[in-house]
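Late entry, evening session. Most of the bench is empty. Finally got around to the prediction I had been postponing all week. Sequence below, unchanged from the version circulated by S.P.
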Amino acid sequence: MEKTFVKGGNPYLPLWEHIPDGEPRVFTYQGEERVYLYGSHDTEKTEYCGRDYVVWSAPVKNLTDWTCHGTCYEAADHSILYAPDVVQKGDTFYLYAAEQKGSVIRVAKSKTPWGPFTDPVKTELGFDPGVLVDDDGRVYAYWGFCACYAAELEEDMATIRPGTLHPHPMGHCDADFPWFKGEKEHISVEDGFFEASSPRKIFGKYVYIYSKRTGKPVPSLGVDGPNNGFLSYKWSDYPLEGYRPGGDISFNGGEILPDGPGKGVMTYRWGNNHGSVMQINGQWYIFYHRHTGQNEYSRQAMLEPIDAAQGKDGKIYLGKIVYQAREPVACGPVEMTSQGPQMEGLNARQWVSAGYACHLYHPKGHQAFIAPVYERRADVSAPICNISDGVTVGFRYLRFGSNSPKTATVILSSGGNATLILRVDDYQGKEIARADIQPGMHEITVPLTAALIGRRAVYFEFRACGENTGIQFDRFTFDD
């Protein structure tokens, strides 16, 4: 029987689709409850985003089974569209479209969650809008770049209600952009607002999810300078003010390797981040994006399960939560994985594209990368390119079940002689297979020297005779 390709890992959309800035929403339409993804669309390839929005959705009980509903909105002037948001009020769905690279925000309407969204009206909102329809039907909007703003909207869903505009509900980042003239008294160096406003209501509290830009090192994550690869949050008892420190939920720097007490090393090239949290079928998730290619113009939609809790003092905890005596006391970013919604791991006996790697590491910083692919085929694989001597490629996690496979098969190409080593559980973990690589295109099958059962992390280490062997890693599988 011919092997099929893994789908619905991380990224959870097809490898050929590039949806960043994903705002998940759960809507029930005609009795069916589905999660819908609305994001900008990286189709320009030489700059951020694209000129249309598409909608993807999945049943809440299976986040590996995504359907594309096609284009739901295009700007009337064919300008580039930045990050949108969609909310439902009554029987109408409202799309907030960020036209002209986010400088003009229009709201359009539809009677279905997948659109098309029509009759756009210019709003008074700004960059990266996020909208919250509260339990009492009142509507609040949040937006901004480096500095953030919040306000209540009128019934038209476009106009700011007089007297409700709140500038700086959170401190802005210590932005080093020469054109940004933010007020110094509002700077928050460690958790300053950067962009990506996304409001949510959790446990009766108002939670403001955003992309932060830290100006201080974060040694535990390997961050040694200004960085905006985080999705973070603050919370409040009120929709427009009073936001208190929360924490970080997601960081897109890959698996973090320990590097001494309180220190870590990133294994993936971080970049801007955008997304939100959503409870789906009883489980909370963080939706975010990662970067492929050698720039920031081919981003992909990712998700991880997270924990959510409320302390006795009312504080909201999101992400990886630390408990003491069953009470939440701290939280931090969850790990970045290859498995996404498949919490038992990707099926190791299918073809696993190298494009699902969450670990691309070289101790000297040589940058291997996942090549963007755009061909819309079920069997398309996103290869890893620029592999040099000492690179490790990791997948967290694979599902092996109760019976161990006997062999591993790898598809790759090389311009020179090299050695491939397969390790388990850690990038320096136990060696369970080794093979020589000759110049050319290869399908290499090697026997395993140890059993693999359950849910495991696997790593491929490349040792080359020279720096320029031109190794390209396409996919792998395991067999009984």
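Two things to note before I forget:
The helical segments are 99-102.
The mean pLDDT is 95.
Will write this up properly tomorrow.
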